[in-house]
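Journal club prep — side note

Before the paper discussion, L.F. wants everyone to see what a predicted structure for a comparable chain looks like in C-alpha cell form. Sequence:
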Amino acid sequence: MTEYPNGRTILTTQPFVWGERTEQEQINAWFQAEGWQLLPRKDGAFHHPVRDLLILDALPRNVLTRPDSSIFPFDVVIVRPSDDLKWSLGLA
C-alpha cells in the first residue's frame, strides 16, 4: 500500500504467463465445461448458478492458451451479482 496526499493506493503485480490469445469459441467451451453458463448477448460473460458468481470480460484479450494447451484466464472480472443485476441479465 502506498500513501498519497489524496489517499491510499494498493499496488499489485501478476506473474507473466506465456501463451497465445484464445479464440472466443474455445473460451466459451472451457468455461461451460467448468460449470459456467454463457450469458446470451454478452460476449465473455458467464454465470455459475451454484456459486452465484458472474465472470465478465472473458474475452481473447484476457484469456491465454499456454504451451501445454491449458487455458489461463486473467484480468477477468468476478462479481457476486445483486438481485437487481441478476434480474437485468435475466437470471432471476
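L.F.'s comment for the group: DSSP finds two helices and nine strands in the chain. Keep this in mind when we get to the figures.
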